[in-house]
Amino acid sequence: MDKVNPYFLKNPSLISFSGGRTSGYMLYQILKAHNGKLPDDVFVVFANTGKEMPQTLDFVHDCSTYWDVPIIWVEWDNNSKNKIRIVDHNSASRKGEPYEQLIDSKKFLPNPVTRYCTSYLKIKPMRAYCMFHKGFEYWNSYVGLRYDEPHRVARLSNRNKKERWETEGPLHDAKVTVQHVYDFWKNNEFDLRLPNIGGKTPQGNCDLCFLKGANTIKNIMKSDPKLAEWWIKQETKHLGTGNDRAAYFRKDRPSYAKLLKNTQDQLELFEFDQATDTCFCHD
Fold first, then answer.
1. Do 174 and 180 touch, CB atoms closer than 8 A?
2. Per residue in 231-241, pLDDT tens?
3. CA distance 136 to 121
4. Is the sign of the CA dihedral 262, 266, 267, 268 positive or negative?
5. Quick one: which H or E segment has residue 87?
6. What percent of the residues of the chain are helix, what percent strand, and what percent coil, each to the nearest 5?
7. What is the pLDDT of residues 94-113, one digit of tens each?
8. Top-tier CATH class for 13-186
9. pTM to 2 decimal places
10. Three-state secondary-structure class, residue 126
């Protein structure tokens, strides 16, 4: 097989599947490069935080079912051996349990400066799976970074210097853009059942992630106000020692309770944020 193909993997490998359209597209292309079956020492792993939308969990399950590829579901669990719990579509947390357990153990909320949620809920469970469940000492990790995301790809070289794995971005190497991803899912037999707005999925990853723009969060709240309850609960725990940064997800904008109140006072939708670097849980 042509090893110049960016989707032909080095072994052993972990395919980091976020549950979004881009990583789904990457998985499809990797499967295609391997004639529909992954090598024995290549594993697809999805790290569930408990705050993904139900449609995201269904999409992960659909990719596994339609393409006949095993996808390992992992969750951070402070009470389990090696801090990792293996789950599946049926047993996966859906009420933010792993995330809330992590917050309670840290006793302060994550924020844009200290994003420990990404490390503990995404990166560490995948690392634990490779090290303790598969016995890998070193491995390659493949993430869904496109050609039109050079700022994210640039971070990979820094991470590679200090981890047990080499991170690869095959979509970037193949010059794949958001338009390629959009065209693929438009013509596919199944899709992620969340709105695609300008090539982005505002409700992807954690539903109301603090890294999403304020208007994006308020629009999601307007469509499903109950999603705000979990985030408001965390901010009303008054964690820390009076430091605003410890008790709130962000100090540069209103609390989740105030954002929700704002959506209730304004009837129309808010203009979507134009920021190019929204929440992303692989870096």
1. no
2. 999 999 988 76
3. 20
4. negative
5. strand 84-87
6. 40, 10, 50
7. 999 999 999 999 999 999 99
8. alpha beta
9. 0.92
10. helix
